[in-house]
Amino acid sequence: MKVIVEADGGSRGNPGPAGYGAVVRDHRSGETLAERKGFVGVATNNVAEYQGLIAGLRAAAEVGAGVVEVRMDSKLVVEQMSGRWKIKHPSMQPLAQEARQVAQEFDRVSYEWIPRERNRQADRLANEAMDEAQKPSKPVQAEAEGDKQPHWSGATGEPTRLILLRHGQTRLSVERRYSGRGDHPLTELGLEQAAKAAQRLSEVEDVAAVVSSPLQRAAQTAREVAGAVGLEVVTHQGLIETDFGAWEGLTFAEAAQRDPDVHRRWLGDTSVQPPQGESFDQVHARVRKARTDLIAKYGGKTLVVVSHVTPIKTLLRQALDVGPQFLFRMHLDLTGVSIAEFYPDGHASVKLINDTSHLG
Questions:
Q1: Which of 7, 19, 308, 325 is the Cys-Cys partner for 52 at CB 3.0 to 4.6 Å?
Q2: Best CA proximity match to 1, nearest among 348, 293, 280, 328
Q3: Which residues contact 101 (CB under 8 A, 6 or more apart)?
């Protein structure tokens, strides 16, 4: 997957209050896949520009990019990262090294200078970060008074809290068969599991929306939750399960026997697609877009997201900022509950994984 990263940074005083912005775009369509912004503190323009580059590269890694084309209006950063200019200033050297380390995650990274007028979105984000940081803030109250404390990692802003719920049991889950785009209803036990999960989630305060994959097994589970919290179900196509293609409805052994070489490679390489199916890298990109859509619409609120194994694992992987092997080592039970919080400055936190205490 090839993407464009546009990054910028600014300082009001140089040095002065500084912020950065970064945008990740699809190389073909130009569609925005991710945005990042953050306040640096008191720093120079160059420091902020490097911070924007690092944030943009990390966001590109999150969406599953393999090839990255970086575009910036900072001649200094472009020339230094391209290796044509030496990095003499001591404050630049560790930032350039960090950017290079992140860039090693990709197959190829190139750097291009662009005029400022072609970098307006990243510039806007950098200015927003500075504006937000310079707004008068409320005094921090004690936890006992109910106000949220700053996150221990330094994350700032109000997080979007995603309560991730896997759907209930279906016939294919009983038989342990690949269940992707096939639209199977819940079993009687699956309906009971959904009702128990709904009862548990009815105790969560201030749920702003119940968002579901459009597939029947997820939608049925979501309707139970929505009824318990007094909301309607909103569907999002990006939360649908992986398309397993020709393996749909097969057991693990049957798929391995049908396509032994592809199946073996698929188990360790997220870029490999099942025959006529979808790779985990493709799932990563569309789930990342779904997450961006939800945060844009419900930023700073609590959502219940009802989905399937791979999309939920993918959201947890993105929150943890870990590699693709996480997908193969994480187990999720039917109606297991996980919680991930995404902050506006790019930080994230995982609060819970695969809790099924409501089924006990």
A1: 7
A2: 280
A3: none
Q: Tokens at residue 91, please?
A: 């404050």
pLDDT at 199 over 60: yes
pLDDT over 50 (residue 312): yes
CATH 3.30.420.10 residue window(s) in the chain: 2-133
Write the single-letter amino acid at 107. D
Active site (annotated) includes residue 167? yes
| pLDDT, tens digit, 9 for 90 and up, residues 226-240 | 999 999 999 999 999
Judged against a pLDDT cut of 90, whether residue 314 lies above it is answered with: yes
Selecting among 241, 248, 278, 341, the annotated active-site residue is: 241
- The pLDDT of residue 156 is 61
Task: Give me the CATH code for the 160-359 domain, please.
Answer: 3.40.50.1240
Catalytic residue among 35, 49, 69, 167: 167
- Residues with Cβ within 8 Å of residue 116, at least 6 apart in sequence: 73, 123
Tell which CATH architecture fits domain 2-133: 2-Layer Sandwich (3.30)
